[in-house]
Amino acid sequence: SYRHLPERPISFEIGRIEDKSEVARSAYPRRHTFFEILWLDEGNGTHFVDFKGYPIQPKTLYFIKPYQVHYWAIETPISGYAIIFEEEFFIKWAGTFFDGVEFFQIINNVTAVYLPKDEAKIIDSTVHLLAKEYAEGQYRYTEAIVGLMQFLLIWAQRFTVEEWQSVPGNAKEQLTQQFLVLLEANFKEQHSPKWYAQKLGV
């Protein structure tokens, strides 16, 4: 965990991945209640999200939704930035913007986005600006952070990879995992099998 902004706490944090605990980079499956975006500078291996493997490559954005199971199979050490936030961050500061961010729709398969070299430079600069705003907490930094996050997500969505090369998995197992994620997130409000079937497209 990173420090929260001091003057006006918001549901947002950013920090270097290598500064996080070993647990956060371990091969042990885990899940959490917040959204997470990873931007890697270095490293090789495989990042598993809901037991589906995505190649670890520098200059790639990885998107993790609440309650998704994820873990690492690291071959060479990874470095970069981790951005974590709760949905209320966008609800409070950017209205309905978050509704149009397809990376975080629960049945969408977009989990990793590779950026071409020139575009990667723009994302890299944006992430560094986010880290600077977060660390320094200057005048109206909350609005600056929201604006930078909107820019990052819009820019990345332009280069969404619909069919990312991944470690092959059994379709039935993937459907089961998607159902478990849905159930974990919605069981208190949703009890109808039909509702889950519609969300899963079956």
C-alpha-based Rg, rounded? 17 Å
Structural class assignment: alpha+beta
Strand coverage percent: 15-25%
Shape: globular
The topology string of helices and strands comes to EEEEEHEHHHH
Sheet having the most strands: 6 strands, antiparallel
Helix content: 25-40%
Q: How much is the average pLDDT?
A: 76
* Number of separate helices: 5
Q: Provide the low-confidence segments as ranges.
A: 1-8, 161-169
The N- and C-terminal alpha carbons lie at a distance of 38 Å
Number of extended strands: 6
Overview of this protein structure:
- There is one protein chain.
- The protein is α+β, with helices and mostly antiparallel strands.
- The chain contains five helices and six strands, in the order E-E-E-E-E-H-E-H-H-H-H.
- The protein has helices spanning 87-94, 117-136, 141-157, 171-186, 193-200; strands spanning 12-16, 35-49, 52-56, 60-64, 70-85, 112-114.
- Strands 1, 2, 3, 4, 5 and 6 form a six-stranded antiparallel beta sheet that branches.
- Strand 2 (35-49) and strand 3 (52-56) form a beta hairpin.
- Helix 2 runs antiparallel to helix 3 (141-157).
- It is globular and about 45 Å long.
- It starts with 11 loop residues before the first strand and ends with a helix.
- The model is unreliable at 1-8 and 161-169 (pLDDT under 50).
How would you summarize the topology of this molecule?
Layout: E1 12-16, E2 35-49, E3 52-56, E4 60-64, E5 70-85, H1 87-94, E6 112-114, H2 117-136, H3 141-157, H4 171-186, H5 193-200
Antiparallel strand pairs: 1-5, 2-3, 2-4, 2-5, 4-6
Helix pairs in contact: 2-3
